[in-house]
Amino acid sequence: MRRAALAAALTALTAATACTEDVTAPGHCPDFCPSGSITGVDTVLQTVVQRDSAFRGFVRPHEARSLLAATLPGVIDGRAIVLLVPVGQRLVVGTGGDTTTGAIVGVDSLRLTVTITRRDTSAHNLTLVYYRLPLDLDSTKTFADLAGAWTTADSLRSLNVDSVYALAGHVDLLRGDSVFVDTLTNRVTVIAKLDSAMAPYVVADSGKAAFGIRVVADSRASIALGSVEAGLGPLLTWFAEADSVAKDTVPRSSTVGVRFDSFVFDLLSPSVDTTLDSTLAVGGMPVARSIMRFALPRLIRDSVQISRATLVLVTARPPEGVPADSFTLSAHGVLADFSAKSPLSPDPSRVATTRVHIGIARGDTVRIEMADILRSWQIDTLAPTALALRQIPEGMEFPEIRFEPSTNVALAPALHVTYVKRFPFGKP
């Protein structure tokens, strides 16, 4: 009996002193958990951008992938100009592989084909107005140089794109025009018929032809036409007659492409002056870029984990145009800081973008999320902490935006950064 009682007492004591789990109690491991806590910091670096500057001339009108045309009263008047390849003095009159040629003796009509790659769909009665231009077009020509050809009396004809597209088959049987829309790309192909009086064939010029194109609408009008640089340059088809071997005339067609294309413009308001000042200009024509150099605190560059970084820019001059002229603004890292000639980095992690909409006001802010760029600078400590502000794509829009520079202390570019300090792991 005594042994049984002793065994029962030992069992009770063991049960009383055994380790038990209390699932309702908070965890507690002071001997093994590191001390401290995760701390997030949100800060605005007001003077982080230094030595910023703007440069112009990265894309000139005759190098652009679009021929810009715009009629923005009080702002800008832009028109496309095109010089076509000469059709020559002879056309093939043979058939079935026979390459016999005959001299061109007459021209019945021509078809000028252009491709609208961008338009404002809210602009109704979009109309192209055609002009005949001098045959000496080149990259030095300005709007003023061609002033004599822009008078209303000198216009060859006009084509209402919306009206022709509304017709059966999108063809104007009376005037010979046609309009086709590619539903995948939204490109609009416009084919205008010209008679021989509008573009006379001159033997001495071998059939050279040059045209200017203006755009008008019920409201503001702004379009982009495909250029030869984009593989969408204008085409001119001649419908001519040539002498055959039998001395009779044979109707033939011949299509020629572009020898030179560009656009010219007249600035109608001082607010769109292309002269660079202390502000940070982006876009416009000739295309402008701005270089921004960042003096990051060593803490940000070396010792924190960046959660978010937002570049905040204040508009000094908003872009003017139509809604379709809205564009993408890019903050693009550079491989080396050579000022205007700084090569852009091919690394996609060093590119941040945002959309700039027509209609923002002076003093509004534009924000670009660029956390990936800052992280890439943390990884590559030899990379220059500089960005090129640029339009994407360049040379495709007339509007230009300007931002307040770092010299304007009250409105200077700022960097809003959220980061986490390194966790202070303890010693077990």
Tell me about this structure.
The protein has four helices and 25 strands. About 1% of the residues have low confidence. It is mainly beta and 428 residues long. The two termini are 51 Å apart. It folds into two domains: 169 residues, Jelly Rolls, CATH 2.60.120; 192 residues, no CATH class. Helices cover 8% and strands 43% of the residues. Strands 3, 4, 5, 6, 7, 8, 9, 10, 11, 12, 13, 14, 15 and 16 form a 14-stranded antiparallel beta sheet that branches. A hairpin with a 3-residue loop joins strand 3 and strand 4.
* Domain unit count: 2
Strand content: 35-45%
In terms of structural class, how would the helical and strand content be classed? Answer: mainly beta
Helices and strands, in order, run as HEEEEEEEEHEEEEEEEEEEHEEEEHEEE
Runs in which pLDDT lies below 50 for 5 or more consecutive residues are: 15-20
Distance between the termini: 51 Å
Q: What integer value in Å does the Rg equal?
A: 34 Å
Helical content band: under 10%
Shape: elongated
The DSSP helix count reads 4
| Mean of residue pLDDT values | 86
The profile of the biggest β sheet is: 14 strands, antiparallel
Q: How many beta strands in the DSSP annotation?
A: 25
